[in-house]
Structures are given as C-alpha cells and as structure tokens.
C-alpha cells in the first residue's frame, strides 16, 4: 500500500479531498478526565484512499454555527449577503462563507488594524500596532477571536466582503493516523484531544477537534479528508531485526497504535518497546486492552507507562526512560530506532534531554560526546520525531 500517486488511482488532496463518513466516534478518556480524548473511525468506502503507518490525515473542519451566528449578529448581518467564498472563490451567502471558509476563532492583527483605521484618531489599541509593540500585540490578541474584536468595537461597521477579506482561510488540521490499513482496509482511525478552554470570560473551542466531537452525526456525517505523507516516520521492514522504541504520551500514542497493528499484520521480527504517558491510569489509559493484546501476541515486547497525576510529584515518560536507561542503552546499542510523537512545546525537548542523559550515563560519555552520539543517531535516521 502506498500513499503515492499511482496511474488509475484517485488522487486526493486539498483541492480534491476524499469524502469520508464518520462511522465510529467515542471517548477513550473517562468522563472525569481533565480533558476529553476521542477515538474516530472514518469509513473510506470504495474511495480507494490509501495510507501507511506514520502518515497523517488532513481534515477540513467547519466552524461552530453558533459562533458564526454571533459574528453575524455583532454586525447586524442576516447571513444572506453574497460574498466570494474564500475556498471556492464562487459567490456564496456570507453565513456559509464564514462557516466553511474563514478562521474566526482567532483574532488577527489585520482585523485589529482595520478596526483602528476605521475608528480614526484615538483608538485605545492603536499603539499596539506600532512595530516596537509586536509582543504586546501578540499578547493582546492571544485568547481573543474575531467576535471579541467586533464586540469590543460595537459602533464599527464592515461591508461583508471587506470583513471576509480581513480573515485568514479556515485551513485543514492534521491528525496522525492511528490505524494500519492492513488490518482496516476500508477505514482510517484517529485519536484526538478535544481543545476547549476559557479565555476573556468566554468558553472557547478548537475548530476541528470540536467539529468532530460535537458537530458530526455518527453514521451520517461526511468529512473531507486527504493523506499527508509521513515519509520520515516509517517502520523498518518487517523482516529486519531492528528494534523500535516508541515514545508517545497523550495523543502522541496515535501513530504507535498504527505501528503495532502493522507489526502484527506483517509478523514484524524486531522487538518493540512503547512508552505511554497520560494524567491517570484510571481515566486515561487509552487502548489499554489493545496494547495488552499486542503484548500477548508478540507484536509489542515492553509497555512502560507514566501517570503524571496519580501521585504528588509528576511522573512523565522521560522519567520512566531514565529509570530504564541501562536497558534503553542496550536497545540503542542493538540498532534501535527511536520514535517520538506528541507535544512539541515541552515533551519533545524533555525526552530529547533524557536521551542525551541516558547516552552519557550508560555509554560513559561526557555531554559533548553524548551530543555527538545523538547527532549520529539522527544522521542515521534512527531518531524520528513527529511532534506538534
Ligand atoms: C503532524 C501532526 C499530527 C497531529 N496529530 C494529532 C493527533 O493525532 N491528535 C490530536 O489531538 N492532535 C494532533 N495534532 C494537532 C491538530 O492538528 C490540531 O492542532 C489540534 O486538534 C487543534 O486543532 P483545533 O482546530 O481543534 O483547534 P484550533 O482551532 O486550531 O485551536 C487551537 C489554538 O487554540 C488556542 N488555544 C488553545 N488553548 C488555549 C488556551 N488555554 N488559551 C488561549 N488560547 C488557547 C491556541 O492558539 C491554539 O493554537 C497534530 C498536528 C500535526 C501537525
Ligand atoms: N490547549 C489545549 O487545550 C490542548 C488540548 C489538547 C492538546 N493540546 C496540545 O496538543 C498537544 C498534545 O496534547 P495531548 O492531549 O496529546 O496531551 P499532553 O497535553 O501532551 O499530555 C499528555 C501527558 O504528557 C504529560 N506532560 C506534560 N508535560 C510534559 C513534559 N514536559 N514531558 C513529558 N510529558 C509531559 C501530561 O502531564 P500533565 O498534564 O499532568 O503535566 C500528560 O500526562 C500538546 O501540544 C498540547 O499542548 C492542547
């Protein structure tokens, strides 16, 4: 199976996405977990869409109709006004253009600029637009959206087309595919944390994760998708003895569920070690039974977990890696490939630091030699990251 174009096969991309029916959607976090994480299965039918473990799926979301209605109300629009749809470039009712084509969940400098310009002298936020105030502008806009800017300036009126042109396009979101097509020939699975937060006195939601969590009807809704190749994040050939070490806390688990299914389907020979972390074993041990089955059938050899909030002090995947440093070093000496997936902002850097420490401690190296050793690992394509 390949996600590359093959003569006679349909090519799906941003301009020609594949319509996929949402066949299964359910929580894999408990109701009292601090955030909701969900499992989705999209039915590919006879679309011919193909993917490989390590690929991600691009999903085109729609905005929350309630937020669209509030934006329309803030400007006194009916929604029937005809504008150019930002995605299709064809005439469309304003409400539809906002729903499908515009990023309204963030507040962009361009919109604030237009507001300040239209208000004339003395707008309280004019100074934020000065080049020297970039950081303050960013801070001001963080956690706000287009509706906030309109509501904070109730006297200002835009032409519908003018307003649309001040917004960014509503783009696709990527999700690591959490299934192997060898085990699921006609479906693609996703593992998605629903983004919800409070900011400036209002509840807010991530567009795509809540589109899937709240606004689709299982068994009926069809979402536009296409595959984004994960060329740098591939398994070794099944007949290779190469061991693999997978580090995937939170939704970082997604590609490794795909890897394990693929390893079972291909009777992969090398050993596999999975590090998974979440807040609590009781509420967030995603896919527990499946991983236990992989341990029994030999597609997974070791499963190490880190529950960050099950005790007073935080325990993260990198703490477990350090505890098992001697064995990790052995696996690395045996040619293991290290895969890391999940949060880029903190986790990936901390896991990287832990790997350096393990190499230094168990390989008997100083920091500089350990860094060179890690660089070699990277150069040999044995350190693969898919972080966001
Ligand atoms: C290659 C790749 C693979 C990925 N795989 C997965 C995956 O398997 N599963 C998964 O769940 N995600 C995955 N993601 C992330 C995913 O693409 C989306 O970014 C995520 O679902 C959020 O999208 P959204 O549309 O729901 O939220 P958006 O509408 O994009 O909103 C997110 C934004 O909200 C703002 N925000 C969030 N919290 C706060 C807060 N507390 N205060 C103020 N502002 C805040 C931030 O600006 C943030 O960027 C992946 C990303 C990439 C690039
Ligand atoms: N803003 C949002 O609401 C939101 C929602 C979903 C996802 N996201 C983003 O999406 C990405 C993935 O989120 P996710 O749902 O997969 O889970 P996540 O937020 O990455 O959390 C998964 C686990 O990793 C732990 N963790 C926190 N900091 C860590 C670190 N430095 N090193 C190792 N582990 C660490 C968490 O512990 P603790 O939480 O107990 O510290 C939790 O146990 C992140 O970038 C996250 O910021 C954001």
What are the low-pLDDT stretches, counting only 5+ consecutive residues below 50? Answer: none
**What proportion of the residues form beta strands (DSSP E)?**
15-25%
How many domains, in number, for the residues?
3
Largest sheet: 6 strands, antiparallel
DSSP, total strands: 15
What are the main properties of this structure?
388 residues, alpha/beta, Elongation Factor Tu (Ef-tu), domain 3, NADPH-cytochrome p450 Reductase, Chain A, domain 3, Rossmann fold, 3 domains, six-stranded antiparallel sheet, five-stranded parallel sheet, globular, binds flavin-adenine dinucleotide, binds NADP nicotinamide-adenine-dinucleotide phosphate
Helix and strand layout, with pairings?
Elements lengths: L17 E10 L9 E7 L12 E4 L5 H11 L6 E3 L6 E3 H8 L7 H11 L14 H8 L4 H7 L7 H6 L7 E4 L10 E7 L2 E4 L2 E4 L1 H8 L7 E7 L15 E4 L6 H13 L5 E7 L2 H4 L3 H10 L4 E6 L9 H7 L1 H9 L3 E6 L4 H17 L3 H13 L3 E5 L1
Parallel strand pairs: 11-12, 11-14, 12-13, 14-15
Antiparallel strand pairs: 1-2, 1-10, 2-7, 3-6, 3-10, 4-5, 8-9
Helix pairs in contact: 1-5, 11-13, 12-13, 13-14
This protein binds flavin-adenine dinucleotide and NADP nicotinamide-adenine-dinucleotide phosphate.
């Amino acid at each position: 199976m390949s996600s590359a174009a093959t003569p006679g096969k349909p090519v799906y991309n941003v301009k020609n996405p594949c319509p996929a029916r949402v066949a299964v959607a359910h929580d894999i976090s408990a109701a009292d977990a601090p955030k909701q994480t969900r499992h989705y299965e999209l039915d590919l039918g006879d679309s011919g869409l193909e993917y490989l473990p390590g690929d991600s799926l691009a999903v085109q979301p729609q905005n929350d109709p309630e937020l669209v209605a509030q934006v329309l109300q803030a400007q006194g629009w009916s929604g029937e006004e005809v504008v150019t749809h930002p995605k299709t470039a064809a005439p469309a009712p304003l409400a539809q253009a906002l729903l499908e084509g515009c990023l309204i969940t963030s507040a962009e400098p361009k919109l604030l600029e237009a507001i300040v310009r239209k208000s004339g002298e003395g707008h309280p936020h004019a100074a934020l637009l000065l080049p020297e105030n970039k950081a303050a502008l960013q801070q001001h806009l963080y956690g706000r959206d287009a509706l906030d800017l309109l509501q904070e300036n109730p006297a200002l009126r835009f032409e519908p087309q003018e307003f649309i042109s001040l917004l960014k396009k509503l783009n696709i979101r990527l999700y690591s595919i959490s299934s192997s097509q060898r085990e699921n020939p006609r479906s693609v699975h996703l593992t998605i944390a629903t983004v919800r937060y409070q900011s400036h006195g209002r509840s807010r939601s991530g567009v795509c994760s809540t589109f899937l969590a709240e606004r689709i009807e299982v068994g009926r809704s069809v979402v536009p998708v296409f595959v984004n190749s994960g060329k740098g994040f591939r398994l070794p050939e099944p007949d290779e003895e190469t061991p693999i070490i997978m580090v995937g806390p939170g939704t970082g688990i997604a590609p490794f569920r795909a890897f394990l299914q693929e390893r079972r389907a291909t009777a992969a020979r090398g050993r596999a070690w999975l590090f998974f972390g979440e807040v609590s074993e009781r509420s967030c041990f995603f896919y527990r039974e499946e991983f236990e089955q992989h341990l029994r059938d030999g597609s997974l050899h070791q499963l190490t977990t880190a529950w960050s909030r099950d005790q007073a002090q935080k325990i993260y995947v990198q703490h477990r890696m350090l505890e098992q440093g001697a064995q990790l070093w052995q696996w690395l000496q045996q040619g293991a490939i290290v895969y890391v997936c999940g949060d880029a902002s903190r986790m990936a850097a901390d896991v990287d630091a832990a790997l350096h420490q393990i190499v230094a401690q168990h390989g008997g190296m100083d920091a500089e030699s350990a860094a060179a050793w890690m660089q070699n690992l990277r150069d040999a394509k044995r350190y693969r990251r898919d972080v966001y």
